[in-house]
Amino acid sequence: MFKRLKHSKKRAEKDCKDKKEFNIDDLLKALKPSKDFQRFEFKAKSNTCWISFIKTMVNPDFVHRDVLSILTSNPFNSLEEIQMLLPIEQKLIISDVREIQKKVMAGSIMIQLNEHDADCLLISAVTVESRQVAMPEVEFTVVGPKEAFVESLDVNINLIRKRLPLPQLQMREIEVGKISNTRVAVMYIDGLANQENINTIMQRISDIEYDHIIDSSYITQMISDNKNSPFPQMLDTERPDRVSAVLTEGKIAILVDGSPHALYAPITIVEFFSAFEDYFQIWHMASLFRLIRLFAVTFSVFSTPFYVAILTYHYEMIPMNLLATLISSRADVPFPPILEVLILEVVIELLREAGARLPTKVGQTIGIVGGIVIGTASVDAGLTSSILLIIVALAALASFTTPVYQMSNTIRLIRFPFLLFAQLWGLIGIAIFFAVMVGHLLSLTSMGRPFIEPIFPPRLADLKDAFFRMPFNRQAKRPIYQRPEDPMRANPQRINEKHDNEK
């Protein structure tokens, strides 16, 4: 421990020494070899100054129209006078080289009166290149808003603020990444979000030690409660309307500059099976669709392990009429059930990856044609049975019903351990691994909150928007598990009142 403290002290002293030795000339020397770095002496009527900037980061029209033209027509003798002359909001005079470096690399113009002056006037002239707000590609809905996040943090914050125009919506910004200096915004509604949750997220993001952060997926892997769990503990979404809705529940959103997705926490496992489109439909249909998704996920995980377990150890459970069909289907198959299943499962995964990595039109063709050709050929060649082909195809189709892509990947992964345990010990093996998985889920938390709530701990109040979506007038309270500071959404007495005009 003493060695560690001594090493930390030496590193801190070295960083301090490097900071003192690094000056403006060192910064200019480091920037000079870059072809897009511009530095020149600008001669005005009464004085001269040195102007430096990275031309690929600044707006050239802004440089000529709002800076050089004004310096040409107005006399100046100090940086303060230049600051007063320029009708620009974001401008400051600083001498901290580290801060100067950060501003110049982010798209600011640096002005010095003399070539080697330590004091510099920095003027923000950044040019922002980003794609236009478009329709969601992953979380597409038939009804509801058609806007999705883009790679610009400021645009994404705007998409949220226009849906929640209230002063209590707070945004706190942190820069992470020793090299990338990526802007990370944490958003919450003051008076709703639990302060302990806010402090936990802010502390974990501040403690990130990594050289570059280029997407929100980096953040979720670094600040999750259990980094080794296959189950995601933060929900990733590309929909600003979904983020706005969860903020009103007391959750906390995390946005990363350069990422078209937002994270929010704390969450529960049932949220991964709830499509945001559920709230745009009547509650009967939304509840039905949720139950269908839960059944589809259960079928996707257990169908092939049950096939392996029953054919290997428990064939007496098969009805006689079905047994004859299975025997005739497997008569020419030379492999045991586990190998037969693995062949088809691997083929399905290969088709998924090929369809995802190829261009859209080619990927769709590969998925459809490849599935038909390979499936038919494998049955005709006697490598797999036709019944198993139907089961595997239905299981793959059922896994696509998961509305959140992260959980879909988890479901794809956990099928293989179930297959292994089914081959080793049959139905008992499936039960053993299921107990292990349930124990793991019981231990999981999301920002310190129980991950499988309202199942455990059981909370009947939160079941109103879990497996079923009850009508809005039955959801007067916010979810209990995240401990919101204001637990009430609406007055429970008035929410059920009707205010029709009397005739």
Give the strand order of the largest sheet, numbering strands 1, 2, ... along the chain.
1-2-4-5-3
The backbone outline, from C-alpha atoms, is: elongated
State the order of secondary-structure elements, H for helix, E for strand: HHEEHHEHEEHEEHHEHEEHHHHHHEE
Any idea what the radius of gyration is? 30 Å
Strand content: 5-15%
Most strands sheet? 5 strands, antiparallel
Q: What is the percent of helical residues?
A: 40-55%
Overall tally of domains: 3
> On the 0-100 scale, what is the average pLDDT?
88
Number of helices, counting only DSSP H or I runs of 4 residues or more = 15
Low-confidence stretches: 1-12
Can you put this structure into words, describing what you see?
The structure is a single chain. The protein is of the alpha+beta class and 503 residues long. The protein has three domains: 2-124, no CATH class; 153-267, no CATH class; 279-449, no CATH class. The chain is 46% helix and 12% strand. The chain has helices spanning 2-21, 24-31, 60-73, 79-85, 97-105, 153-161, 195-206, 216-223, 240-247, 283-312, 320-329, 337-357, 360-380, 386-399, 405-443, and strands at residues 37-43, 48-54, 91-94, 108-112, 120-124, 169-176, 182-189, 235-237, 252-256, 262-265, 445-446, 449-450. The strands form three sheets. The protein has a five-stranded antiparallel beta sheet, with helices on both faces. A five-stranded antiparallel beta sheet has the order 6-7-9-10-8, with helices on both faces. Helix 10 (283-312) packs across helix 15 (405-443). The longest helix is centred in the last third of the chain and has 39 residues, at 405-443. 29% of the residues are buried.
